[in-house]
Each structure stands twice: as structure tokens, then as C-alpha cells.
Amino acid sequence: MMHYSVMIMIVNMEGYTVVGFAMYYFTYDPWIGKLLYLEDFYVMKEYRGYGIGSEILKRLSETAVKTRCSSMHFIVAEWNKPSIEFYKRRGASDLSLEEGWRLFEIDKKYLMKMSAK
């Protein structure tokens, strides 16, 4: 799977500093088609509130539209209320409420146990 990224940098006398980034990849869902899956999204705390996150999301949206994705999917920690509100203000739907999806993990210990049967 190939990952892509969007970075926002500021230039200063010493060079540049990355102040925000997003990492994403494309995947396919048989029910809804091609998706842009947002794996990671971060803006340094001291640079929040300046529109950097909005600019990153705009670039991701442009990429999704240009590559004919039907939607963008991502997960957000339940405790991260500011991020949840950030996404909701931009039209995101919480599928855990709407469709009842739950995130699960099978860790390496149990993967090895199942594969040994």
C-alpha cells in the first residue's frame, strides 16, 4: 500500500519547519467505491487556529475529488473533542453513531495463535 502526505511548512532564517501534515492512502470499499483514507493528521499546537488544518483538509479534499474518490474516511479518538468538532464543522459524519461501526484490533499474540491452528 502506498502512502502519500501533505505537509505545511514555514520558512525561516534557518530553513523550514514542518508545522502540520497529513498522511493518507487510497483504498476501495465494495459498497461505496474508491476512498481516500486519512491515516494521520497533525498540526503543531502552537500553530493551531491559523487555518493550517483547514488548508491541509482543503488539499486532501482536492486530491479526493481529482482522483474520483466517493469519500474520505478516518478515525478520531473519542476523547479528542476539538478534532471531532473541527471535522463536524466541515461536514464529517460520525459513522459510529450513524451506522454503529466499532473499531477492533486483533494484536500480534492472537494473530499468531489463530495462524498456528
From TrEMBL:
Reaction it catalyzes: an alkane-alpha,omega-diamine + acetyl-CoA = an N-acetylalkane-alpha,omega-diamine + CoA + H(+); spermidine + acetyl-CoA = N(1)-acetylspermidine + CoA + H(+); spermine + acetyl-CoA = N(1)-acetylspermine + CoA + H(+)
PROSITE patterns, sorted: GNAT (PS51186)
Enzyme Commission number, as recorded: 2.3.1.57
Primary site of residence: cytoplasm
Keyword Transport: no
GO MF term (any one): spermidine binding
Ranges in a coiled coil: none
Taxonomic superkingdom: Eukaryota
TM region(s), chain numbering: 6-26
Annotated metabolic or biological route of this protein: Amine and polyamine degradation; putrescine degradation; N-acetylputrescine from putrescine: step 1/1
Residue ranges constituting the N-acetyltransferase domain according to the UniProt record: 1-117
Cytoplasm found in the keyword field: yes
Keywords: Acyltransferase, Cytoplasm, Membrane, Transferase, Transmembrane, Transmembrane helix
Gene Ontology biological process: spermidine acetylation
Localization per Swiss-Prot or TrEMBL: Cytoplasm
Any one GO CC term of the record: cytoplasm
Family: Belongs to the acetyltransferase family.
Subunit field text: Homodimer.
Protein name: Diamine acetyltransferase 1
Organism: Albula glossodonta (roundjaw bonefish)
